[in-house]
Specification:
Blueprint lengths: L23 E7 L23 H19 L6 H5 L11 H17 L6 E8 L3 H8 L5 H16 L4 E6 L9 H12 L12 E7 L2 E6 L4 H6 L4 E3 L2 E3 L1 E2 L12 H10 L12 E2 L5 E2 L6 H14 L2 E2 H12 L3 E4 L7 H11 L7 H10 L3 E3 L3 H4 L7
Parallel strand pairs: 1-2, 1-12, 2-9, 4-11, 12-13
Antiparallel strand pairs: 3-5, 3-8, 4-5, 6-7, 9-10
Helix pairs in contact: 1-3, 1-5, 3-4, 3-5, 4-5, 5-8, 8-9
């Protein structure tokens, strides 16, 4: 969106609001698994001298978590141990190792937003990013969220199954009906007579122009074999997500049961900022029931599909933000968000090239992994 174009509700980015504020209205989105990689090592160095306030609270939560793991003799790494490593190793990607690090990085990014320049009007996330969104919105404090993230990472690790990614768009990031039909056909295909009842499959995450599908461990090969091989960008699909279990599926019922039992005593509160969950449903401050948030977080979204596409759709339709802000680590949400905007035809976006040109002129999507974009919304050092 250029400086002279009006937003869908008639506003212009950065101009004075009726209440006198010149802050831009932003929706913040939190990433999930797969967002932290080798280039992100050392991201949490700022927590060594955090000063006071919320950053100190996050630093103390990390220290307490690491101390507890060390005291318990846990086989899983501490947050600072992993983030401070010299080399990135494959074992770092195991959920119980990487999930607490991702949470800490994303929460740190959120605290770095310049509130004199941005007004956060809603918060959402993708998959594990929902847990971080709860913290950013004030539903849980940093220590409680760290416990939530670690507990559910370990619980889901033990459930098994697999995730497979397949695109439903073409190179222009527009919907490709043939690819969508291929996914529906694969999900609707029944096992051969006499096959194991464990050969199950379904939707796990709707992620812009991608469908993340779940399957039982036994059914992974059959699911991959039922999808035609296609290429998008530099990747060939179907693509198995290494190290991922069948998240957001019925296979996760044991994890949901454990979470409901182990995490009921966390200090659940109504959010301070509107939340958008994995169905596109909004949770409003002072109205949202903490008990219902607890049930949704530890039951519904664990065992049912997570629709990140609906999160983005609700964000732009209901809040008409000046910008969408994608927290780190990494830049894993950018392509999916762009594909949703193209599907929606948001402010005239109708293809990959048009989106990229708009981003060059005046980015609507701000990724904190991109320094030139992050400078628009973060505090000056």
């Amino acid at each position: 969106m250029s400086r002279t174009e009006e937003a869908p509700d008639g506003r212009r980015p950065g101009v004075e609001r009726p209440n006198g504020s010149t802050r831009e209205r932003v929706v913040v989105l939190c990433p999930g698994r797969g967002s932290y990689g080798a280039n992100d090592l050392g991201s949490l160095a700022a927590l060594d001298e955090p000063g006071t306030g919320a950053l100190r609270e996050l630093s103390d939560a990390v220290s307490s978590f690491d101390s507890q793991r060390s005291h318990d003799g846990s086989r899983w790494l501490g947050v600072r141990e992993l983030d401070g490593a010299w080399n990135f190793r494959s074992r770092f990607l195991r959920g119980p190792n990487i999930a607490p690090v991702i949470f800490a990085c994303t929460a740190q990014d959120y605290l770095g937003l310049d509130r004199e320049r941005v007004d956060v009007v809603a918060i959402g996330g993708n998959s594990m990013g929902w847990y971080t969104a709860l913290c950013c919105a004030g539903v849980l404090d940093a220590g409680a969220t760290m416990r939530l993230v670690a507990t559910m990472a370990e619980a889901t690790e033990d459930c098994g199954g697999a995730q497979v990614v397949y695109p439903t768009v073409g190179e222009d990031w527009r919907d490709d009906p043939e690819r969508t039909a291929a996914v529906e056909a694969a999900l609707g295909r029944r096992a051969e007579p006499g096959a194991s009842p464990g050969l199950s499959r379904g939707d796990s995450i709707r992620f812009g122009g991608f469908r993340v599908l779940w399957s039982s461990a036994e059914g992974r090969a059959a699911l991959i074999g039922s999808l035609p091989t296609v290429t998008l960008g530099s990747n060939d699909y179907p693509l198995r997500l290494a190290g991922n279990a069948a998240f957001h599926s019925p296979i996760m019922h044991p994890a949901a049961s454990l979470g409901l039992k182990e995490l009921s005593e966390l200090p659940w509160r109504s959010p301070e900022v509107p939340l958008i969950d994995g169905r596109g449903v909004q949770w409003r401050p002072r109205i949202a029931d903490p008990d219902e948030l607890y049930d949704y977080t530890l039951s519904t979204q664990v065992t049912e599909p997570f629709d990140f596409t609906a999160v983005v759709r609700t964000a732009i339709r209901e809040y008409a933000p000046d910008r969408l802000v994608l927290l780190g680590p990494g830049d894993s949400l950018g392509v999916a968000v762009a594909q949703v905007l193209i599907e929606e035809g948001w402010v005239g976006l109708d293809s990959r090239e048009v989106f990229r040109e708009r981003q060059r002129q005046n980015p609507f999507v701000i990724s904190l992994a991109r320094p030139e974009q992050a400078a628009r919304v973060t505090k000056e050092e």
